[in-house]
Amino acid sequence: MTDIGSGKALPLTFPATLKGNRLIIPAQQNRNDYLEMEVIHHKLHLRIQPVQWDENGNIRKNTVENVEKRYFNVSENKL
After folding, report:
1. Long-range contacts of range 38-41, CB-CB < 8 Å, 24 or more positions apart?
2. pLDDT tens string 30-69
3. Cross-strand pairs, 6
4. Closest CA to 24 of 57, 4, 52, 47
5. Which of 5, 44, 61, 72 is the most exposed place for a label (fewest CB within 10 A)?
6. Is the distance from CB of 76 to CB of 41 less than 8 angstroms?
7. How far does Cα 15 stand from its chain's mean position?
8. Would the pTM of this model clear 0.85, i.e. be above it?
9. Is residue 73 a contact partner of residue 43, using CB atoms and an 8 Å limit?
10. What does the pLDDT read at residue 38?
């Protein structure tokens, strides 16, 4: 996935994989947190899980309570 934004900054490319009907972008140290996107009943479900790294560059164990959820209406005419 490439985020081109407004064109004022350089685009960022993130490795994304599909698991079922979810698009998953894994966490990368100093770049991004764990991210999932899924469309359910014409709503985009965006789930972000902040990731903490230890001194060896490994992900510390995260819990479900850390997940931030956002929902966006998706119009059929705009897809």
Report:
1. 39/74
2. 888 889 999 888 888 999 988 888 889 888 876 556 777 8
3. none
4. 47
5. 61
6. no
7. 11
8. no
9. yes
10. 92
For CA atoms 9, 34, 36, 74, the dihedral sign is negative
Q: For the beta carbon of residue 38, count every other beta carbon within 10 angstroms.
A: 15
| DSSP per-residue string spanning 6-21 | TSSS--EE---EEETT
For 5, half-sphere exposure in the C-beta direction (CA atoms, 13 angstrom radius) is 7
Task: Tell me the three state secondary structure of residue 77.
Answer: helix
Per mean pLDDT, which range of 7-11, 22-26, 48-52, 57-61 is the poorest? 7-11
Using the predicted structure, report yes or no on whether residue 79 has a pLDDT greater than 50: no
Tally: H helices and E strands in the chain: 0, 7
Which residue, 35, 49, 46, 50, is CA-closest to 1? Answer: 35
Is residue 56 within 8 A of residue 43, CB to CB? The reply is no
